Amino acid sequence: MSRLLAFLLVLGLIGCDGGDPAAIFEGEVAGVEIGDGPTYVSLRAAARGATAVLPASAAATTQWDLAFDGAEVRLNGGSSGPGTAIGVVLATPFTSVTDALREDVAYRRDGDSPCFSGPPRAVCTGPGEGLLGETDGQIVPVLGRVLLLRLADGRGYAKLQVESVMESPGGAPRLAFRFALNPEGSSFEE
Predict the structure, then answer these.
(1) Mean pLDDT across the stretch 109-121?
(2) Which of 68, 69, 87 is CA-nearest to residue 77?
(3) Up-side HSE of residue 93: CA atoms within 13 Å toward CB?
(4) The pLDDT value given to residue 94
(5) Does the structure show a pLDDT above 60 at 110?
(6) Which pLDDT does position 22 carry in this prediction?
């Protein structure tokens, strides 16, 4: 009887993969270098516990959701990549964004949306815009901003807030952000 119980317990643990695959994931990513050239980031990979930063060879795929290139943020869709990512930057607390499908927001696609300064992007860069800015030649987060985006594969949504930008020992800026991801839907509430 105890062997049967032990076997069933082990079988139950093997069958448990950490929860429902459509469950909402919340986490943080730190140390993302945003220096020379685009840094491609997969939020799905980060949610699985894998490395969030992808190699440059991923640029022509839908594996990445967003890319950081200095203070510029690109989404994998439109003119920036083959994906279907769209996004919008909100001036609101991270915790107040509970659903991605909101009537009060208009999503934008890279290449289709004019910006005050810089190329047409869903996430503009410039004074008072976007997630990142520049002050005295240093990249800084724009506080109180949340990026709401549909993932590159078009199946889920995420919200993201840059928490800090630090200079690495090598001199390249590295950022840290927190995010929530619903891999199959739009709600960020359990």
Answers:
(1) 86
(2) 87
(3) 2
(4) 97
(5) yes
(6) 64
For residues 130 and 117, what is the distance between their CA atoms, to the nearest angstrom?
11
For residue 86, give the amino acid letter.
Answer: I
pLDDT digits (tens, 9 = 90+) for 140-163: 999 999 999 999 999 999 999 999
Structure tokens at 1: 């009887």
The neighbouring-strand residues paired with 13 are none
Dihedral over alpha carbons 166, 152, 113, 108 (to 10 degrees): -100
CB 38 within 8 A of CB 60: no
**Cα separation values, 172 from 20, 29, 157, Å:** 38, 17, 29
Longest Cα–Cα distance in the chain: 72
Q: Convert the pLDDT of each residue in 27-55 to its tens digit.
A: 999 999 998 899 999 999 999 999 999 99
**Amino acid sitting at position 99:** D
Residue 96's SS3 state is helix
User: Can you point out the beta strands (E) in the chain?
Assistant: 25-33, 39-41, 53-54, 66-69, 72-75, 86-91, 132-135, 138-141, 145-150, 157-167, 173-182
Q: Where are the beta strands (DSSP E) in 59-156?
A: 66-69, 72-75, 86-91, 132-135, 138-141, 145-150
Span 112-123, average pLDDT:
85
Q: Please give the model's pTM, rounded to 2 decimal places.
A: 0.85
